[in-house]
Amino acid sequence: MVKRPWRKTQNQPRVISKTPPGHAFHFKRPRHPFNAVIAFLSARVFQLRIPTICHTEVGTLPNEPEDLQQARRTEASIMNKYLMQLRTEASVADSIVRECHMLSKQEHILEQIVSIEVGPSGDSWRAVVWLDSGIDLLHSVRGVNNPWTPPPKTRQWQTYFFPVIVHQVTANAISKQGSATNVPHLPSHGTPSTRIKGASDWKASQNVCFLPIHYGFQLDKDLACQDALYALSELFQFAASSEVQLLNCLQCHIEREVSFIGAVEGSSRRAASLMNLRYIKTILKKHAQRLAGTTCMLKSRDSLDWPRLGSSNKAEQTAKILLADFEYLLRRAESLARECEQGMATLANSAILEESRRSVDMGLRVEKLTKIATIFIPLSFVCSVWGMNFQEFGTGILPLWWFPVTAGPILLVSIFIYRLDHLLILVSKLKGI
């Protein structure tokens, strides 16, 4: 074994920082470069949620809360199968559904994502948009009984999607942009035919699929080439319109569940209404978080390295309108979530009141039973003492008047003991007077 020569190293000086007594040591943590990468990616790539309402005409809404727990568990398992099959059998241009929420047996909420990547500013920049909506949902990832397809034993026209209502171009705007012949026409197969009775082939007919066809018609082309947010403004407007439609639908369901408070009886119905409000609150919390992220991004527009034309009043006005829209959506989502919490608290309070009312009723019944027992227990005791040993019955030598003579005092003593608390309260009041 060869030993290496030992070298004496010079001791490095130690730096000792003196801190006042009672104070802890604080060290500055160096900024990790990964944090900067995350901030860079969040500024470059972001997502917008596009909810769509799917309605199925299966009967009428009942006049009581719907118990949807089992149906929601079944739908969750179906969505898991759909997502697993999506990984293996999805093709190019297939439409994708990220989440599906069951509000009632008639209405579902489908959520899709629009992913946007904005390139760095400079002489040339890019904006890439990925849509979850491609071909019709009927022809995407077949073989799974999806919640948005027409259920069995129903007609195809009874299942349809609500279109997202967005501000349309007026005649004046068309004349400013150019001739009416430049207006892009929707394809013939894309017209909403789901509500036409007798249609042979059911189609989802989401108007988000038409967004790439007529996108940018209302925009100023020269300004869109220089300002990224203005170029993407119609996409933000479409997402805001779909979010407004979702919040309107959720508000209707919240008002319906709250209207059952005090109108229905039974713990099972109250529990169903409570679970529905909790389910809606979960949806609102998720959307409020996403809206808060979008609002924060729009507020920090000055710090984003996006192409921007600061001298354009039109672009700045569009940015202010988008920020105001998403701030309103955020406030409304939070307000609806608070309404859900208030409804849940009211349901819990009504359950407590009903339980207390039931306890009071039970106490009154026990009080009546106690009054009856106060009379009959002493009488049964006297009967058990004397039995049948009376001359009148021919089985004894005692006269019958012994029974009332002994039963009367015992009954009076029992009543006195029963009313002793009331007598003590009465005596204390008389002493106070």
TrEMBL record:
Subcellular location: Membrane
Cellular component, GO, one term: membrane
Region entry Disordered, spans: 1-21
Source organism, top-level taxon: Eukaryota
Membrane topology: Multi-pass membrane protein
InterPro entries to which the protein is assigned, alphabetical: CorA_TM1_TM2 (IPR045863), MgTranspt_CorA/ZnTranspt_ZntB (IPR002523)
GO MF annotation terms: metal ion transmembrane transporter activity
Main location: membrane
Regions that span the bilayer: 369-388, 400-420
Keywords attached to this entry: Membrane, Transmembrane, Transmembrane helix
Protein name (Swiss-Prot/TrEMBL): Uncharacterized protein
Organism, as annotated: Triangularia verruculosa
